[in-house]
């Protein structure tokens, strides 16, 4: 189970940059957040960009870049299904906001989203689930919508993703 801090970080990201509409748009959330590093004259505001690329078997990656100015970049495979892209976008944003990627750890790439034993992947998956399928909204919608396919479409995720979310919330 994810730590409270991971869930809290996803909730904070939604609070700061979500327009309140479903499905949640991780690209818009990322665009609405700047990461502040340092204080006073040393303060830097780092933006987060999301870019779709053809990545072959890779679903996405997150990285810290120095040029043209220090910032974070999340790439997702635009050749994958849109529901997969949305989860990947949220997952990679999670890596950035959870400090898995930094100046010292410049790139983190995911080949399978395999969370077995890698706490960073477990946390990024939990962040993504809470960002795009917020627990309170899933509980509410699941009480009104019994059909998994309709529920998945409401949140803009795959049927598999919503099943995992319902199960993790004790609703399935």
Provide an overview of this structure:
This protein is an alpha+beta fold and 172 residues long. It is built from seven helices and five strands, in the order ααββββαβαααα. The chain has helices spanning 4-17, 26-31, 82-97, 119-132, 135-144, 148-155, 159-168; strands at 34-37, 44-53, 60-65, 71-77, 107-110. The chain has a five-stranded mixed beta sheet with strand order 1-2-4-3-5. A hairpin with a 6-residue loop joins strand 1 (34-37) and strand 2. Helix 3 packs across helix 4 (119-132). The longest helix has 16 residues, at 82-97. The radius of gyration is 16 Å and the shape is globular. The chain starts with a helix and ends with a helix. The relative contact order is 0.16. The model has no long low-confidence stretch (mean pLDDT 90).
Q: Tell me the major beta sheet.
A: 5 strands, mixed
Strands in their spatial order, largest beta sheet? 1-2-4-3-5
- Compute the number of helices: 7
Q: Would you identify the regions where 5 or more consecutive residues have pLDDT less than 50?
A: none
| Helix and strand element order | HHEEEEHEHHHH
Number of strands: 5
Helix share, percent: 40-55%
Q: What global shape is seen? A: globular
Give me the Rg, rounded.
Answer: 16 Å
Structural class: alpha+beta
Mean pLDDT: 90
Instruction: Provide the β-strand percentage band.
Output: 15-25%
Terminus-to-terminus distance? 16 Å
């Amino acid at each position: 189970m994810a730590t409270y801090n991971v869930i809290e970080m996803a909730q904070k990201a939604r609070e700061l940059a979500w327009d309140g509409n479903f499905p949640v748009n991780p690209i818009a959330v990322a665009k609405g957040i700047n990461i502040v590093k340092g204080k006073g004259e040393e303060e830097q505001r780092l933006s987060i960009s999301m870019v779709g690329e053809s990545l072959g078997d890779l679903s996405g990656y997150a990285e810290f870049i120095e040029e043209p100015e220090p910032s974070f970049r999340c790439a997702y495979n635009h050749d994958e299904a849109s529901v997969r892209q949305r989860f990947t976008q949220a997952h990679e944003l999670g890596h950035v906001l959870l400090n898995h990627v930094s100046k010292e750890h410049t790139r983190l790439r995911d080949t399978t989203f395999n969370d077995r034993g890698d706490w960073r992947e477990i946390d990024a998956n939990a962040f993504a689930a809470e960002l795009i399928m917020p627990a309170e909204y899933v509980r509410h919608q699941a009480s009104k919508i019994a059909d998994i396919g309709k529920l998945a479409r409401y949140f803009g995720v795959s049927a598999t993703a919503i099943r995992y979310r319902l199960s993790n919330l004790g609703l399935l």
